[in-house]
Amino acid sequence: MEDLINARCGWAGTDELYTKYHDEEWGRPVTDDKALFEFLVLESAQAGLSWITILRKREGYRKAFHGFDAEQVARITPEEVEQLMRFDGIIRNRRKILCTIDNAKLFLAIQQEFGSFYEYTLSFFPDRRPIVNHFETLNRIPAKSPESEAMSRDMKKRGFRFFGPTICYAFLQATGFVNDHLEGCFCKAGPTKPHTTDAKF
Fold it and tell me: Which of 21, 61, 120, 169 is the catalytic position?
């Protein structure tokens, strides 16, 4: 067990939920738009909070936002918003809830324009291919990148909120568009099984 801990990226710690997320999900290539929308919702909700806080409420977000179905989220009514403000399963921040609904509408518009949100995200990468970094220590991993800055800037112009370049970079890391597993981490080779929204964490 100690060898496995030493072989992980240091940020994964020893919390079972966090290590499971690191081992089985973080950095896996995500091509499914529903899964990408899930991460968009969760990363936006994380603004100003720790990621473990959001992971612990993930199932609450799944329930509150219709299994991360962007079309259903885009149709959430003001009455439903009031219900969500009383739901302990999510961060009860009105601005973030309203942002999630508005972002869902914009997400659907991008799908219409690009065919998928996956294709849209790829458009910000050289040769339309994910980036594999080769960092040996956590302090070398950047908080943002040219790709996250460009994508965040474009999304801001389209009206997205709570998705600045740092949150965007976290989104790209989580969904495998950027592989920032440290050298020596047993996940560095890059798991090939895509993440799906069926996983329970």
Answer: 21
CA dist., res. 69 & res. 75, Å (int) = 10
Task: Tell me the pTM.
Answer: 0.91
Encoding tokens for residue 181? Answer: 């597993």
User: CB pairs under 8 A, 24+ apart, for 137-143?
Assistant: 137/182, 138/9, 138/10, 138/11, 138/182, 141/180, 141/182, 142/169, 143/169
Q: What is the mean pLDDT of the chain?
A: 92
| Active-site residue, 82 included | no
Two tokens, residue 149: 């800055």
How many whole angstroms separate alpha carbon 64 and alpha carbon 72?
11
Residue in 18, 25, 38, 43 annotated catalytic: 43
Tokens of 144: 């943002």
Question: Among the options 24, 51, 119, 149, which is catalytic?
Answer: 51
Distance in angstroms (rounded) separating the CA atoms of residues 174 and 162? 17
Instruction: Decide if 26 is catalytic.
Output: no
**Per-residue model confidence as pLDDT tens digits over 99-139:** 999 999 999 999 999 999 999 999 999 899 999 999 999 99
